[in-house]
Amino acid sequence: MVEVRDVPAADRRQFERALQYAFSPSDGPGLSVSDGDWPPPLYAPRAVYDDGTLCSTSKLYTLPGEIRGTETTVGGIGGVATLPEHRESGHVRRLCRDALAWYADHDVPLAALWPFSTPFYERLGWGTAYSYSRLTTPPDQLPDHDPRGSVVRLGVDDWERLSAVGARADQTATFRLERTEQWWRDRRFSDDGWGGVPYCYGCERDGRLAGYLLYHVTDDDDQTLAVDNLVAVDEAARRALLDFLGNHGAQIESVVVHGEPDAELLTRLDDPEPATCELHRGPMVRLTSVGALAGFEWPVANVGDSSETVDCRLAVTDPLGVDDGVYRLRVTGGTATVDRVADTPEDDGATDTDATVGIGTLSQLAVGASGVATAVRIGTLSVDDDRLRQRLANVFQPGTVRLRQFF
């Protein structure tokens, strides 16, 4: 019998073996079980079992966050791994269905993940939240600035200050995460799969932190300084941090900066010719249920016929079969109601629903990763009526998503 369930302490070694083989195979088969509580405080360990044999793993995180101005709990799926002898058996699909059910049972409206393959998770109903850039440059190409304030060394005990800076920098985001003390201690300032404990420096002005960066330095021939996170509340703080990175020319061959798409990164360089800037698709999101839309605030833009209520029949397709169906979506006064009216348009006796959408595109609309015009042009949203399309656009306004770190 194949089932998905919590991983007991007795199976901890098998659980960690699967993770090691998937993410650190170069370490070889020797594996010592890590110390600490089980289950860990940061996540719920789940696994697929086939007749009692652990085959595939996942870690289900729950983190505080905000979606459309509504404080909520957000799910983060990580550690998805299958032992090689059990692959090609549909276990990841089982884990995804299990995660959605687990989060729905715990009143978590949205599940995010960093995919090993974007197309793979698109086929399971996830939508990309944003793309990120990877800038590689010699440090001497970073411009010199006369930074305001000072750059100071920070550590794990500064986690509250670091979280406060992130909240200030992300305050206008339509979807953002908050990091808890446990997260900072056990994930960001630990050697838990991050390539060692990172360095952390911040820009401080009048005793207040205005930005920070986390980075690792490789000991290989490339001598690379890799920035995992660069967060700044304003231009002055960003300049101070870039100036700090540029000061590493005597010991570093190249600086790599990961971040949200930023064309200005290239224009800031003294000479962009030696640099490369790659664009990658980043984390992905998925509603745990269509009904989760009712838990967010939906202030309507003051455009066109925005005062009119949205009331439409929405046919949703879901490759996992969790949310397939026809829903009546009503939005008025900033509040949404969602009622499932049929499993398919045919079951409801009406094939002429007002709009159709895939669950991945609907999830992108929910967090502001996409607006209606984009969802119609390159997503799976189809709306024939121009007036309804405008009303939906007034509700599902595009915004900015900020997740920043891996789960």
- Overall mean pLDDT stands at 91
Q: Termini separation (Å)?
A: 30 Å
Estimate the helix proportion, in percent: 10-25%
Structural class designation: alpha+beta
Beta-strand fraction estimate: 25-35%
CATH superfamily of the largest domain: Gcn5-related N-acetyltransferase (GNAT)
Which regions contain 5 or more consecutive residues with pLDDT less than 50?
A: none
**Sheet with the most strands, sense and barrel status:** 9 strands, mixed
Write a concise keyword list for the protein shown above:
23% helix; 3 domains; globular; 21 strands; 407 residues; 10 helices; single chain; 7-stranded mixed β-sheet; 33% strand; Aminopeptidase
How would you describe what is shown here?
The chain has 407 residues and is of the alpha+beta class. The protein folds into three domains: 107 residues, Gcn5-related N-acetyltransferase (GNAT) (Aminopeptidase), CATH 3.40.630.30; 149 residues, Aminopeptidase, CATH 3.40.630.30; 109 residues, SCP2 sterol-binding domain (Nonspecific Lipid-transfer Protein, Chain A), CATH 3.30.1050.10. The protein contains ten helices and 21 strands. Strands 1, 2, 3, 4, 5, 6, 9, 15 and 21 form a nine-stranded mixed β-sheet that branches. It has a seven-stranded mixed β-sheet with strand order 8-10-11-12-13-7-14, with helices on both faces. A five-stranded mixed β-sheet has the order 18-17-16-19-20. The protein is globular, with a radius of gyration of 23 Å. The model has no long low-confidence stretch (mean pLDDT 91).
